[in-house]
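hiii, so i know i said id send this last week but things got crazy w the move. better late than never?? heres the sequnce for the chain we talked about at the cafe, plus the structure i predicted for it. fair warning i was half asleep when i ran it
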Amino acid sequence: MLQKIYRLSENGTTIGRELQAGATTFAAMAYILAVNPAILAAAGMPQAALITVTALTAAVSTLLMGFMTNYPLALAPGMGVNAYFAFTVCIGLHVPWQSALGLVFVNGCIFLLLSVTGVREKIIAAIPHQLKLAITCGIGLFIAFIGLKNGGIVIASPATFVTHGDFGTPSVLLCFGGILLTAILVARRIPGAIILSILAVTLIGLVVSNGQGGTVTTMPGSLFSWPSSPAPTMFQLNFDLLLHDFGKALPIILTLLLVDMFDNIGTLIGVTERAGLLDASGKLPKAGRALVADSLAAILSSLFGTSTVVSYIESASGVEAGGRTGLTGAATATLFLLALFLTPVILAIPATATAPALVVVGIFMFQSVAKLNLDDFTETAPAFLIIAGIPLCFSIAEGIGLGLIAYAVLNLVTGRARQVPAIGYVLAIIFGLHLTHTLIARLF
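okay and structure toks below
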């Protein structure tokens, strides 16, 4: 039955490999079960309910994506978007979280409209294959940077922005050792290299000091827990802000739309390119279905009671473990549901253990740089801005925006304006307005 539903033989994979890949993806993104509730709780939302809602939303959305596309993509409430929701919208602009959820719902409906009409698919088609490769590389650096940051190998510095962490700290050394272990296992083609490394570092962390009087891995107080009720957040959205202060609601909706759209598009391109799902011309088959799936997921997230659900860059870890079909996502979704009863165990996996997986996945994705044609400077410069911009701006959307603006301008002034489709110029203008909105606000 599974062979028939997911066309495993046709995609060159097996049930065992897909289940292993699903477990790897889950292990790499399980942190969302702790991080998303903590961030949204700052906006006054009930944290216990959010743990349940986060797991349910991730599971349902991932199953939906697998059912509609048969792609190995996992979805969950987006990092960055949740921070914007909590700290900018709710705290900074004093918008009640119920009204903010209503704006997320509207954002999802606009997404769905753009997807059904084919506009989002045309946006993806308007991005040249060279820039799609650059997006993959940029996301790879972004993932690796997040991993290095989570493991304490890279830290903030007021003098140099970033610097190396304290390698005299056992937890930092353990993380670096985990990177080396993962790389060795991958190089020797050991099956399940990434998840084996996560498990090994987690176990070693039980006896390694975290420098604060405890150990890197903390033994959970219990193995099982009963899920909290999602009722405090589920179906609690309202449209009061939209109805009574449209001028305040509109900029929030537009920002959500722009960030969510290009975070999703960037992830979709990056992960599917690495999985070998793009065709010879760099186009993604069934892109329309994928975009409709994540649009429906965005609507579901507002109904369940969390910030916007997006495709997760950590899906790349499952791809590198051999995942090629929706069965990978089904396995990941099942583990999210099981996690509702195993929350203490899941939360015991430290960032030190998952950080090496992110770094190695980033290395895998950066390998696409070898496919770039660097002879044409009008394509090299935009590609470089994307590759550098995504990690340095700490935003997939902003990095893509820098590259698309540069691509449109360079082709326009070098007499090759027709090489850029009309929608490419529209995107460049939109990103230009987005990046300079504070200047425009001062002028007008």
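btw The beta strands are 75-77, 154-157, 161-164, 309-311. thought thatd interest u
miss u guys!!
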